[in-house]
């Protein structure tokens, strides 16, 4: 393609105008490319992002200046429907294909910006699609009188452009819950949007409870839960596409599938991501009543859950509350034996299906509660639990043997500390959160959500901090997830019992502010609606580029209420 002044010589002799497509866009762009040429003025081309920006550095799409060109080729209905948004009525407006160079004649010499857009189908969180600009590129061109000028435009992948209430986030939008400013269009509309709450369960019989969630970057989001109060109680799971939308490609995964197979009740699911050799999936663990008085089982899954599971050898003690963590080559399964203690066993090698488990080892004796296992970055494991009103942790070697003695995690033993959650940090160590009834200056009302960072030896790094900034009434049942970074970002979610909602907060691992685009705040934020009361959140980071997080929770305690799922931008 050549940009030339109107009085130029034969344009066919000029070098072509080159358009290069980012390889990520090749399969996404639909139809011809849209070309616009307009005077540079106070605008500038940011070629690295493929965007045109104003003097303040803000991206400009609508109302760009322009001049007529020859030929005046319209781009068809696909682009004409966007004219109100992108200002295509008066600026240069022509279309071409990347394989067919063309010539654009400019009536006056001067400094211009050449802008190329590529359109494609964007899938929304509810599974529907709409057409959006998914590729954009620009270049600066200066044309003298009678001159022919060539240029190269690289079309870069673009985030979808958000509009208030469209359930898609632009780069400068925050997010809230509820109706999308339906009755007013004002300044707030450009900084607010909504992400929808969806149900994981499609079947409504029984109670759907105790969700667990896993979302490895670039892979499928999986939500598991237990079904109660029906003849065939079991653990079920729902698979979502890597972008978090309901799975539509694989028929067997469009609705929930049975994860914990067996002839008797399966309950209390726990999930962890798995990346080992060719394995790219997740591991699940659950309680099973196939063996009296009760046992725990685990299995590794890809996108096609197999039947059966690897249960531990039968024992006299009842086994409950399983928790599971996966390193590069091992799976650690830990569980409670009520009144007896906390035990763990490992599976090696990490394979699908799992083989035999190692002999159980004792992690802690006595009455314990709520164990949580994590795989540390050095290949070892850590198990966290509550006992006697305090929170404890102990390292487990890569071979599945206890290391050193257990350490107390909470610095303040006043009142009761319980319901711990834990997640490993990519830079080493882990973070632990718990429900804390010991009041301090940060929260003097009922229970709070407190947390601390531990190094690989389980020594505290800094002081314990309070995650919640909402302090009225009890804050309870915390869960947390970690996303890599420098330092890592920590997501907390918990129940706000006073309002019946789920709340969340993002912090950095060094306890500094992490901006949450939900609500545009560094304080805690509302995750769920309040009616009926919501319970037991589970959370994970993930998304196509690791740029999202998801929270799942029990949407009330009535039959058919189900498990709610909502994803957000980081």
* Beta-strand proportion: 35-45%
Which shape, going by the Cα principal axes?
elongated
Tell me how many strands there are: 39
Radius of gyration: 28 Å
Total discrete domains: 3
Annotated CATH homologous superfamily of the largest domain:
Fucose-specific lectin
Total of DSSP H or I helical runs spanning 4+ residues = 2
CATH architectural name of the largest domain: 6 Propeller
- Main β-sheet, in a few words? 6 strands, mixed
Q: Reading side by side through the largest sheet, how are the strands ordered?
A: 2-11-9-8-3-6
| Mean pLDDT, all residues | 80
CATH top level of the largest domain is: Mainly Beta
CATH topology of the largest domain: Neuraminidase
Explain what the structure shows.
- The chain is mostly beta strands and 570 residues long.
- The chain folds into three domains: 2-161, no CATH class; 169-195, no CATH class; 198-550 and 560-564, Neuraminidase, CATH 2.120.10.70.
- The chain has two helices and 39 strands.
- The strands form ten sheets. A six-stranded mixed beta sheet has the order 2-11-9-8-3-6, with no helix packed on it. Strands 12-39-38-37 form a four-stranded antiparallel beta sheet, with no helix packed on it. The chain has a four-stranded antiparallel beta sheet with strand order 13-14-15-16, with no helix packed on it.
- Strand 37 (535-542) and strand 38 (548-554) form a beta hairpin.
- The chain is elongated and about 95 Å long.
- The model is unreliable at 1-17, 22-27, 67-74, 80-91, 124-128 and 180-190 (pLDDT under 50).
């Amino acid at each position: 393609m050549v940009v030339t002044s109107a009085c130029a010589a034969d344009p066919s002799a000029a070098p072509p105008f080159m358009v290069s497509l980012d390889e990520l866009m090749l399969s996404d762009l639909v139809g011809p490319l849209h070309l616009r040429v307009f005077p540079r003025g106070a605008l500038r081309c940011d070629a690295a992002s493929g965007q045109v920006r104003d003097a303040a550095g803000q991206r400009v799409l609508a109302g760009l200046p322009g001049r007529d060109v020859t030929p005046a080729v319209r781009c068809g209905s696909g682009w004409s429907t966007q004219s109100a948004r992108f200002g295509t009525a008066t600026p240069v407006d022509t279309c071409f294909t990347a394989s067919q160079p063309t010539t654009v004649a400019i009536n006056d010499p001067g400094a211009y910006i050449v802008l190329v857009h590529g359109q494609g189908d964007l899938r929304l969180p509810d599974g529907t699609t709409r057409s959006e600009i998914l590729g954009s590129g620009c270049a600066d061109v200066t044309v003298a009188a009678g001159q022919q000028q060539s240029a190269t435009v690289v079309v870069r992948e673009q985030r979808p452009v958000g509009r208030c209430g469209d359930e898609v986030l632009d780069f400068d939008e925050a997010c809230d819950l509820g109706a999308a400013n339906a009755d007013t269009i004002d300044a707030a509309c450009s900084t607010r949007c909504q992400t929808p709450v969806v149900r994981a369960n499609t079947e409504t019989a029984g109670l759907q409870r105790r969700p667990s969630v896993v979302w490895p970057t670039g892979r499928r989001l999986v939500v598991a839960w237990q079904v109660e109060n029906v003849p065939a109680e079991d653990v079920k799971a729902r698979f979502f596409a890597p972008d978090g939308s309901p799975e539509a490609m694989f028929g067997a995964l469009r609705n929930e599938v049975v994860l914990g197979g067996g002839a008797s009740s399966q309950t209390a699911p726990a999930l962890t991501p798995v990346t080992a050799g060719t394995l790219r999936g997740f591991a699940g663990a659950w309680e099973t009543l196939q063996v009296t008085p009760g046992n725990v089982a685990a299995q590794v899954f890809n996108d096609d859950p197999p039947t059966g599971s690897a249960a531990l050898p039968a024992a006299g003690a009842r086994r409950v509350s399983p928790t599971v963590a996966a390193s590069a080559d091992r799976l650690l399964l830990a569980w409670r034996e009520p009144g007896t203690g906390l035990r763990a066993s490992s599976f090696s090698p990490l394979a699908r299906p799992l083989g035999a488990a190692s002999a159980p080892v004792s992690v802690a004796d006595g009455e314990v509660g709520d164990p949580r296992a994590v795989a540390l970055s050095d290949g070892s494991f850590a198990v966290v639990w509550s006992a006697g009103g305090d929170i404890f942790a102990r390292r487990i070697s890569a071979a599945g043997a206890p290391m050193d003695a257990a350490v107390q995690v909470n610095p303040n033993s006043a009142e009761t500390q319980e319901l711990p959650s834990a997640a490993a940090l990519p830079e080493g160590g882990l973070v632990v959160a718990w429900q804390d009834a010991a009041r301090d200056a940060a929260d003097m009302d009922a229970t709070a959500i407190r947390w601390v960072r531990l190094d690989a030896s389980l020594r505290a790094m800094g002081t314990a901090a309070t995650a919640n900034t909402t302090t009225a009434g009890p804050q309870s049942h915390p869960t947390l997830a970690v996303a890599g970074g420098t330092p890592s970002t920590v997501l907390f979610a918990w129940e706000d019992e006073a309002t019946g909602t789920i709340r969340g907060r993002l912090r950095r691992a060094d306890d500094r502010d992490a901006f949450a685009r939900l609500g545009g705040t560094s304080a805690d934020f509302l995750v769920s609606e309040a009616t009926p009361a919501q319970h037991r959140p589970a959370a994970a980071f993930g998304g196509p580029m690791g740029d999202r997080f998801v929270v799942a929770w029990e949407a009330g305690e009535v039959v058919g209420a189900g498990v709610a799922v909502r994803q957000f931008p980081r």
